[in-house]
Specification:
Layout lengths: L10 H8 L4 H20 L2 E2 L8 E3 L5 E3 L6 E2 L16 H4 L7 H16 L9 H14 L10 H10 L15 H5 L9 H6 L44
Antiparallel strand pairs: 1-4, 2-3
Helix pairs in contact: 2-4, 4-6
Length: about 240
Amino acid sequence: MLMELCQGGELFSRLLELKVLDEKTTMFYAACIVEALEALHTHNNIYRDLKPENILLDTAGFVKMVDFGFAKKVDERTFTTCGTPEYVSPEMLEHEGHDKATDYWTLGIFIYECLSGTTPFAANNYLSTYDKILAYAKHGKLKWPVEVSDEAKDIIGALLHGQSDQRLGCLAGGCDDIKRHPWFAGFDWDGLKAKTMPAPFVPTVESNTDTQYFDPEDVSDESSVESYDEDDDWCTGF
C-alpha cells in the first residue's frame, strides 16, 4: 500500500518533546481532526483509533490522520471492542453497541492529553483504566494536572459525556455544535479548510527524502528502497 509521505512525523513525538501544548496549538490540531471526523461520518465511517501516535504532520504542519485498521462503515451500531485502552469509550466497554459518538469521546481524550500531557484515565494496567472510564461515565469528575481555561474544560466535558447520545457532536447540530463551541470562538474554519491559516509548527524539511522527524528505527534503510523517476508511468495520476 503506497501512501503520502508526511515528513513532519507524529504529533506524539512533538508532544513528548514539549510535554504539553498550549490551547491555541491544541485548538488547531483538534480543528483539523474535527474536519476529518466530519468527512468520515458523512459517509457513515467511524475511525475508533484517535491518538497522537496516529496523527502525522505534513510539510506545512497540517494534520493527516492515519492507521485506519479499526475504521468501519457503520449505519447504526457496531459491537466490536477495539482501540487504545486509555481512549476507549464507556459504551464500547459496556458492550451496548457504539457509533460515531465514540470518535467524539476520543476527541475529548485527545484534547485533554494535548493540554495536560497525560490522558485522564491513565492507570497502572488496562483493567484499572477501564474501571476509571466507567466510573467517570457514571458520576465522575475530571482532574486537571495543569491550568486550562474554563472553555477548554467545558468542551472536553461535553465530548466526554457519559451518555453517548448526549455527547457534543451527536446532538441536532452535529459537528457544527463542536465548531460553534465557545472554545473555538473566533477560530478561522474557512482558513483551515483553505490551508491559508498558518500551522503552529512547520517542520524544517531539507529534501523530499528527509526523515529527521521519525524515529530512526521506523525508517527503512535507504539502500533497500527502490528508487523511482517522477516520469515513470505508475506516477501518472497518483
